[in-house]
Amino acid sequence: MELFIEKNIEVRFSEVDSMGVVWHGAYPLYLEDAREAFGEKYGLTYANYVAQGYYAPIIDMQIQYKQPLRHGTQMKIIARYKPTDAAKIIFEYEIRDRITNILYSTGKTVQVFMDLDYQLVWQNPDWFVEWKNKWQQ
Amino acid sequence: MELFIEKNIEVRFSEVDSMGVVWHGAYPLYLEDAREAFGEKYGLTYANYVAQGYYAPIIDMQIQYKQPLRHGTQMKIIARYKPTDAAKIIFEYEIRDRITNILYSTGKTVQVFMDLDYQLVWQNPDWFVEWKNKWQQ
Amino acid sequence: MELFIEKNIEVRFSEVDSMGVVWHGAYPLYLEDAREAFGEKYGLTYANYVAQGYYAPIIDMQIQYKQPLRHGTQMKIIARYKPTDAAKIIFEYEIRDRITNILYSTGKTVQVFMDLDYQLVWQNPDWFVEWKNKWQQ
Amino acid sequence: MELFIEKNIEVRFSEVDSMGVVWHGAYPLYLEDAREAFGEKYGLTYANYVAQGYYAPIIDMQIQYKQPLRHGTQMKIIARYKPTDAAKIIFEYEIRDRITNILYSTGKTVQVFMDLDYQLVWQNPDWFVEWKNKWQQ
After folding, report:
1. N or C of chain B: less Cβ packing under 10 Å?
2. b vs e for B61-90, b when ≥16 Cβ sit within 10 Å of the residue's Cβ?
């Protein structure tokens, strides 16, 4: 069972740089918006992590910019959860045109688990194992 | 004795909008940079507040945009501490050209004291009274 | 006839500072989101301005922070257009709780008209006069 | 001859998230600050590109987060230009502690050349070939 969400993106005026396209540094926020939407859908929000006594910081982020994003373009971001046995949370992303489905950008993030003292947790927390089982991941 | 600092501003590419000028929403960061520089100079940093068991959130911010800021312009921000008997920290700001002294922007911020439970503190904390006395404010 | 919009605000993780509340510098973006939503509703978008050969930069912004905004709180922002005979566009804002209607923050922005050479335009452009007439402003 | 710069980073209060560390989405700005400093040192600024009739947008960005960045930590970012025969500009980055030299983060960006109509340029522009020759790249 593939876990994913689609979320519409509305480019903000403030995100457009002097070249008239979305500044590359604004994309991490789009990816985070998608992760938050995913969390709402599947019960894996930042609040859930903290309630369980964990942080899930990003340790790796990769973004490919294939076509510039412009103000007013109708876009969506797709975030796909990629199962792994490691104590990690991996998402892959696509930013596409809602009308033409043109692929504007792809991305990937990797998160690990840390306790609230910011010490790395090497094994999947029980609650996350349960989450994986619930969704057959 | 007037307490103030001058800090140079380097406009970032990402702060310039599609009109080719600094986005108005970037200025609060300039003001905060100036407050942090002031705090370094006079011993009134965010870390100081927290070490004493207080937050000092902004309750009012006003910015006037008189001339647009452009990438590459040599600017400075002046932050002046404005003494008050109230349990508040008030700063007034000017953004000026380092060469011509042209006035690009003015601003003002008002901070209050809150405890770490985010409850408003109505009287000046002792440590802040000492700080005021030290600087004859 | 009062012109206004209500737009829901979803606090982003990245907008929350180390005090656990929305950083004060994030509010100008909320106000801009509201102006963009207003523009969509009433035909007064940034694209409209440029299509007519004008910019409408903000020359004054004021924000009062009455109650801290937290991640997960259900909020809305109300933006009200305030008619004026001057060649200005004035909005007043309220950020309120969608459930309790608690008032978290108020704000105001003033925009002027400039041509694409960034020269101030002292009189209301004809197209804006027509817009005002259309909406009986 | 290796081309590189070292630039100090001062973490801003606004860049620190509710976990008490720098939000991962703030790093692209650190990388851009380093690129701008590199451009100042070696004559390869955004203004240079545009003056020559080119943009140099980022098409790929990768960041690894090895140790969290905290407010007040004394850090520097090293940006190294990586020569390539392709019509690309490649930088590799390290964020290190100015005192202990601990490695906090690594990154990489790839830029291509586009004309002012945002069309990809497949060959190195003459002025960039001259720049490479000047620096024996």
Report:
1. N
2. bbbbbeebbebebebbbebbbeeeeebebe
Q: Which amino acid, residue A131? A: W
Token digits of residue A19: 């070249």
Check CB contact under 8 Å for A20 and B16: no
Quickly list H helices, chain A: 27-42, 46-51, 126-134
> What DSSP state is assigned to residue C33?
H
Residue-level pLDDT at C39: 95
**pLDDT tens track for A12-56:** 888 988 888 999 999 999 999 999 999 999 999 888 888 999 999
| Chains near A (3 or more Cβ pairs under 8 Å) | B, C, D
Average pLDDT estimate for A73-83? 96
* Contact (CB<8Å) D57/A64: no
Interface predicted TM-score of the whole assembly (ipTM), two decimals: 0.95
Q: In chain A, what residues touch D62 (CB-CB under 8 Å)? A: 60-63
The tokens describing B113, both together, are 């004291």
Distance from CA of D60 to the nearest CA of A (A): 4
Give Cα A58 distance to the centre of its chain.
Answer: 10
Question: Of the candidates B25, B66, B118, which has its C-beta nearest C68's C-beta?
Answer: B118
Contact B118 C21 (CB under 8 A): yes
